[in-house]
Design brief:
- This protein is α/β, with parallel strands linked by helices and about 280 residues long.
- About 45% of the residues lie in helices and about 20% in strands.
- The chain is built from 9 helices and 14 strands.
- Strands 8, 9, 10, 11, 12 and 13 form a 6-stranded mixed beta sheet that branches. Strands 5-1-6-14-7 form a 5-stranded mixed beta sheet, sandwiched between helices. It has a 3-stranded antiparallel beta sheet with strand order 2-3-4, with helices on one face.
- Helix 2 packs across helix 8.
- The protein is globular and about 55 Å long.
- The termini are far apart.
């Protein structure tokens, strides 16, 4: 009889044990399902947020004041110390698109490859629309008209573009100054530098006879060097635009719409006015 009671007690314990295990498994499964659903919902929400916003990556060469340059005393639109006309225009466009601007400072002649590879969304670096560049990228509507200027030393006999023939000319590699001067005067007369300031320094040191560069940076460089002057005669006139990967019409249309709003509201003029004052 005692043995039978013990067996019944053991059976009861087992039943309780099984019931407890069964309840734990169900609860665990339910919890796992809930967690999975929550994770899926969060992932979907993140995807929707990314689709609605995300980043606008701008490739530039921040050695081109007043369009883009480093200023440790200021904070640019992406939170870095890169400021200037192009940086602020890109920041305004990113805001209108509901995106976060990220600026990447790279070599000027690496900007188009970055766009082609998809590593960057836009190229903004005082870029001129040229036929050669249009073979590789698409350009937005223009937002600025620029002049390619000539810098020489104060005692130079060079008075205009015609006097550059046979002279050694310093340029920033990959810029339109480089392209135009190479076509006009031959590669053998062109010294290329990674930064515009390097070309100007070469002029100060007597390594080149003149520097061809955009008029606005030229004013800055001449202002910092008492021995240099800016010629009155322009070397070339051109228009600046924002570059995007070829075929990316959706982004191009969005940029053009944003630029139109900035122009019509006067915001674009305000941005330019912060960096370029009327003479």
């Amino acid at each position: 009889m005692k043995k039978k009671v013990l067996c019944l007690a053991a059976a009861a314990v087992c039943a309780v044990s099984l019931a407890a295990c069964g309840g734990s498994t169900a609860e665990t499964t339910a919890a796992a399902t809930t967690a999975a659903d929550t994770t899926a919902a969060e992932t979907e929400a993140e995807a929707e947020t990314e689709a609605a916003g995300g980043q606008l990556i701008m490739a530039t060469n921040a050695e081109f004041p007043p369009y883009e340059f480093h200023d440790s005393s200021k904070t640019g639109p992406d939170g870095s110390d890169i400021v200037g006309i192009d940086a602020e225009i890109a920041g305004a466009i990113a805001e209108k698109l509901g995106k976060e601007l990220v600026i990447e400072d790279i070599a000027f002649d690496s900007i188009i490859p970055e766009l082609q590879s998809g590593k960057a969304d836009i190229g903004a670096a005082g870029m001129t629309v040229t036929e050669d560049r249009l073979l590789n990228v698409d350009f937005s509507d223009t937002y600025a008209t620029a002049v390619q200027a000539i810098i020489v030393t104060n005692d130079s006999e060079i008075a205009g573009p015609d006097d550059l023939a046979g002279k050694k000319i310093g340029v920033q590699q990959g810029t339109t100054g480089d392209i135009y001067a190479s076509d006009d005067f031959g590669d053998e007369n062109i010294d290329r530098y990674p930064k515009g300031v390097d070309a100007v320094q070469a002029l100060v040191q007597g390594k080149v006879d003149a520097v061809i560069i955009d008029n606005e940076p030229a004013k800055v460089f001449v202002g910092d060097n008492d021995n240099l002057k800016l010629l009155d005669a322009a070397y070339a006139e051109e228009e600046y635009a924002i570059a995007v990967k070829k075929g990316n019409t959706e982004l191009l249309d969005q940029i053009n719409a944003a630029l139109k709003e900035l122009k019509e509201s006067g915001a674009l003029d305000e941005i330019v006015g912060k960096y370029i004052t009327a003479e």
